[in-house]
């Protein structure tokens, strides 16, 4: 889960049908049942339903208003359907007896779901209940039979469901956070990515952060006693920096089944203008200890792969011969103005800078990092991992490696073969002496290549052994502009 975005399908036929859908709904049905007669009450479902309904701008159906009859009639034409209630899988062996339990303990069993619900317009159904994702593959071996398959058979494109009995409080936190990521006005996520993001958030959240979340988002939808007991229990059982929901029991139960929402036409409910963004890493295939190298990461659309291949040639000196090229396993749906943070990781290696954040503007981005293998590095290989983060949590990663050459060399900086400042003409044989002739260095560059120009200036600085003091002189578009660099 840290490295991949995972989704499931009952069968390839079911997935193909979901991806071919043309009917698109609007709005949402949000229902929550907190009070039961013959089962345990679920006090947090009320706050969960009210909070999620507020995000969609609709009125929630709570307790008596979430009856079997009401739900059957209200789902038609809705793009999003959220049901927070009890649910169960029939462990006796009859998957068709699996059901959701609505108001007054009324069951909504699998056969009724398949035959009586009109979900042709539904983009996503969320079953915020226990054991709703379990399946039986004995009776129908070519298709996994269960509630997710039943809802897809009724017309839903995708279903979020659970694999075991889930905890009421952690589920409410997970669900509301998932919808906040999906419906964010500036940086919306597609539903499968939002589920993963919410799971990672809940896993890593401290007691202090969860307490603040209760106060800011869930308390307004809970009674004073419910909110107070929830907050007090959380704080009493954990220190502020503890992670009370780190165990997979709390966050790993929910799975995504069906078509990824980026394969569907937009409904107008979740922002506009997102692009599929892939990530590509270029790194040296071989490195020497105490030598300085670079790695380059690109965020780009698939059609920009050629532009990326052209741009990376500028760094052939830093990347060495035959650099490795690695890609993220998944592309992401990102809207303009989304901030992307790239963080390289490797044991005993320090990267300069440690991380970089840039804003996606619907065009490829480059992230440059320098690194050096220390003299005491004992392994034969540097294992690289690139973490791609959005909104403070990881959404993708790339793994690669560099072979460490046994010999130790002392290289201050990679050379620039055709640059007279680094390899100047002359017969003195003393490169530094020759470079004293150059009192001013002029680096001319376009706005796009400013980063490349100043990286070269730093290389020259190391070569000369002197500090460079720069000043910029901008030029109008279409005319030459120079940036003089004075050498002390």
Description:
With 488 residues, this protein is an alpha+beta fold. It contains 14 helices and 25 strands. The protein has helices at residues 12-19, 44-56, 68-74, 110-116, 147-153, 168-182, 191-204, 207-218, 224-237, 248-251, 305-311, 316-319, 431-435, 450-464, and strands spanning 28-32, 61-62, 80-84, 86-88, 99-101, 107-109, 124-128, 135-136, 145-146, 158-162, 254-258, 275-283, 286-289, 292-300, 324-327, 332-334, 339-345, 351-352, 356-359, 365-372, 381-390, 393-408, 440-444, 468-470, 482-487. A six-stranded mixed β-sheet has the order 2-1-3-7-10-11, sandwiched between helices. A hairpin with a 2-residue loop joins strand 21 and strand 22 (393-408). Helix 2 (44-56) runs parallel beside helix 6 (168-182), helix 4 (110-116) runs parallel beside helix 5 and helix 8 runs antiparallel to helix 9. The longest helix has 15 residues, at 168-182. The model is unreliable at 131-144, 262-272, 408-439 and 473-488 (pLDDT under 50).
Pick out the low-confidence regions: 131-144, 262-272, 408-439, 473-488
DSSP helix count? 14
Tell me the structural class: alpha+beta
Distance from N terminus to C terminus (CA atoms, Å) equals 53 Å
Number of strands: 25
Multimeric organization: single chain
Q: What's the mean pLDDT score?
A: 76
Strand order of the largest sheet: 2-1-3-7-10-11
Radius of gyration using CA atoms only: 28 Å
For the biggest sheet, the summary is: 6 strands, mixed
Percentage of residues assigned to helices: 25-40%
Shape: elongated
Strand proportion: 25-35%
């Amino acid at each position: 889960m840290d490295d991949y975005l995972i989704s499931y399908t009952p069968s390839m036929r079911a997935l193909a049908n979901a991806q071919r859908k043309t009917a698109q709904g609007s709005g949402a049905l949000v229902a929550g049942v907190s009070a039961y007669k013959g089962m345990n009450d679920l006090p947090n479902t009320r706050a969960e339903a009210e909070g999620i309904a507020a995000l969609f701008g609709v009125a929630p159906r709570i307790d008596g208003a979430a009856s079997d009859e009401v739900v059957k009639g209200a789902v038609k034409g809705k793009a999003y359907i959220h049901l927070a209630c009890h649910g169960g899988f029939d462990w006796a062996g009859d998957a068709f007896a699996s059901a959701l339990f609505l108001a007054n303990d009324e069951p909504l069993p699998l056969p009724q779901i398949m035959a009586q619900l009109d979900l042709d317009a539904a983009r996503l159904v969320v079953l915020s209940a226990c054991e709703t994702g379990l399946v039986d593959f004995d009776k129908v071996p070519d298709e996994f039979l269960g509630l997710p398959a039943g809802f897809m058979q009724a017309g839903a494109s995708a279903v979020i469901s659970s694999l075991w009995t889930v905890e009421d409080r952690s589920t409410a936190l997970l669900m509301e956070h998932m919808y906040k990521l999906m419906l964010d006005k500036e940086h919306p996520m597609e539903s499968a990515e939002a589920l993963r993001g919410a799971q990672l958030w809940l896993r890593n959240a401290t007691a202090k952060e969860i307490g603040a979340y209760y106060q800011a988002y869930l308390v307004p939808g809970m009674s004073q006693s419910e909110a107070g007991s929830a907050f007090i229990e959380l704080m009493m059982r954990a220190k502020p920096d503890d992670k009370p929901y780190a165990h997979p029991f709390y966050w790993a139960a929910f799975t995504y089944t069906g078509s990824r929402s980026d394969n569907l036409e937009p409904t107008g409910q979740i922002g506009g203008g997102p692009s599929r963004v892939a990530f590509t890493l270029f790194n040296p295939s071989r490195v020497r200890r105490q030598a300085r190298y670079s790695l380059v990461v690109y965020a780009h659309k698939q059609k920009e792969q050629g532009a990326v291949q052209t741009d990376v040639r500028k760094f052939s000196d830093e990347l060495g011969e035959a650099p490795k090229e690695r890609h993220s396993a998944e592309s992401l749906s990102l809207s303009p103005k989304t901030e992307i943070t790239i963080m390289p990781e490797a044991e005993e290696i320090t990267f300069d800078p440690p991380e970089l954040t840039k804003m996606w503007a619907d065009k490829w981005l480059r992230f440059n990092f320098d690194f050096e293998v220390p003299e005491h590095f004992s392994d034969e290989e540097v294992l690289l991992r690139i973490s791609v983060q959005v909104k403070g949590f990881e959404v993708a990663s790339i793994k690669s490696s560099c072979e460490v050459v046994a010999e130790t060399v002392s290289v201050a900086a990679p050379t620039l073969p055709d640059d007279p400042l680094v390899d100047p003409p002359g017969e003195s044989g003393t490169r530094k002496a020759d470079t004293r002739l150059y009192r001013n260095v002029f680096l001319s560059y376009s706005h796009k290549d400013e980063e490349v120009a100043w990286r070269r200036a730093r290389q020259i600085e190391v070569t000369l052994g002197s500090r460079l003091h720069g000043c910029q002189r901008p030029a109008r578009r279409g005319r030459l502009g120079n940036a003089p660099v004075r050498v002390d």
